[in-house]
Design brief:
Layout lengths: L2 H31 L2 E2 L1 H8 L3 H6 L7 E3 L2 E5 H10 L1
Antiparallel strand pairs: 1-3, 2-3
Length: 83
Amino acid sequence: MTQAEAKMVAKELYRLMKADIIREVREVAEQECDDYLSAQQAARLIGWKLQTLYNRKDEVPHFKAGKHLRFSKRALMRYISER
């Protein structure tokens, strides 16, 4: 590989890495600014009973905080709009 080819490869790698880093930073920033809801609040937002949310929790984006389920408001809004 010539020096010019190596320089082109390095520039392309830099461009790709820069795009990935910017995307990752945006995602982290969005997550940090997101509101997190309890199961009861999430059920109310979706328009379901609390038990319905628990029964269908595998199809709703969530995570566990200890023994409790937590729901990202932003992810729930996406879920609602996609339904």
